[in-house]
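Dear support,

Our group has been running a series of protein-ligand predictions, and this particular one with PRP is the one our PI (initials K.S.) wants archived with full inputs and outputs. We had some confusion internally about which version of the output was final, so please treat the block below as the authoritative record. The input we submitted was:
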Amino acid sequence: MLTVALPKGRIAKETLEIFETIFGETFAFDDRKLILETENFRFLLVRNQDVATYVFHQAADIGVVGLDTLEEQGLDVIRLLDLRRGVCKVAIGMKVGEKLDLTKAEIKVATKMVNITKRYFAERAIAADVIKLYGSIELAPLVGLADMIVDIVETGATMKQNGLEVVEEIMESSTYLIANKNSYFEKKSEVLDIYEKINDVVKQEK
Ligand code: PRP
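Confirmed final output from the archive:
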């Protein structure tokens, strides 16, 4: 039996569809239930930001989560496979027409992704004042809270609608299958078996 942590929403749905393709049966949570048990799997429905936490502490053996979240959290889990879903970028956005001037004395950056942002500016030896927000990041430059934002860009529509544009791409992200390090050894055959089956599905889509 493998316990699988899935993030509520689209990624959970897409992952369960992969399991349906593999096993030819329905995988669906009952309304509002957070656990789904099948013959060989126990699926947990958790918040996106909590997937790696469940896996790191071995409350789940494997999980599915975005690379951006993994990079931000830095928890020590095994990155097994890129599922090639949820493709997006982490990028710096500024008001349309403004230029990224890294020689400015003090740069104010608003973001949900404080660690990725701090790392990016530290690697360039730039003093940045990083302001943590929990959502609606695109608002910050419009009201003078920050000079720029670091945020997820998928279609680019949110930035565009708010008069912002990408001035720099920091990283590409997509959904990854991850595993707990102990589970990877203790349940190696089970983990590798599902890894290979998922890999076959993902490869075929190319
Ligand atoms: C992300 C991000 C942007 C938006 C970008 O938020 O913070 O606001 O998506 O997508 P787009 O380029 O397609 O417009 P998300 O929807 O993940 O919600 P969250 O703020 O609750 O994380």
